[in-house]
Amino acid sequence: MKDKHKVSATHLLLIPSYNTGALLKDTVTEALQQWLPVWVIIDGSDDGSDALLQPLQIQYSGTLRVIKYSENSGKGAAVLAGIIQAQQQGYTHILTMDADYQHPASFIRQYMQASVENPEFMVLGEPLFDDSAPMIRVKGRQISNWWVNLETMNWGIHDSLFGMRVYPIADLVAVMHSTRWARRFDFEPEVAVRMAWRGVPVVNIATPVRYISKQEGGVSRFKYGRDNMLLTGMHIRLLCDFLLRLPKLLMRNKSMRRLG
Predict the structure, then answer these.
(1) Which member of 19, 150, 242, 255 has the lowest number of beta carbons within 10 Å of its beta carbon?
(2) pLDDT digits (tens, 9 = 90+) for 23-54
(3) What is the pTM (predicted TM-score) of this model?
(4) What is the spatial distance between Cα 5 and Cα 22, in angstroms, rounded to a whole number?
(5) Which residue(s) pair with 68 in the sheet?
(6) How far is the C-alpha of 171 from the C-alpha of 193, rounded, in Å?
């Protein structure tokens, strides 16, 4: 594995951000200590958080890139814009992580190592919650995980919503271009399902996640009613698509069992 001070020519760390305040600088600072290069997508933020990165841009000139968009388009759309540029520059894989300091930067190298050793795989985080996790969020993702396991015939996706992941860029671009959805909060579960349909195998990495309270500066873009409606509609769409694909998926799984 590369020394952490070397710059990878294949694996890029991508951090989309929308109004994450001072936590953005904390996230990016720790990420830069683990991996280079790092790109930050400022997705229409109007809280001035991008200005906090200016000292880091000077310190990490050439290895920290900040891409700003004037309007908020959603996490999936921001990631898509980033990976298209990354692919044009020759990168083959991206690791996405949230900008709100919930994901541990200390795990970045483990994720990248798993991807380097298994370049055809998607590397998915499996969250380990502590007492700070809102129970309603934990129960909600259990429901989403049940649906994803059904829609992928238990392909091996342990968690459908965790945002710390490594994707093969070519597969992710193809998946994103195959649907007009997966542009907002539905990004992670929908692309995981569609990558599974595409036959991309999975490595899961158990990863601690922290929920930071508002008193500690924590921010959340999750809106319970709006985003649960979005996820419900997504699973209805995916289930219908799954049923149409079922004969082909059954044949694929039968072939895999025969080869195995």
Answers:
(1) 255
(2) 999 999 999 999 999 999 999 999 999 999 99
(3) 0.93
(4) 25
(5) 42
(6) 12
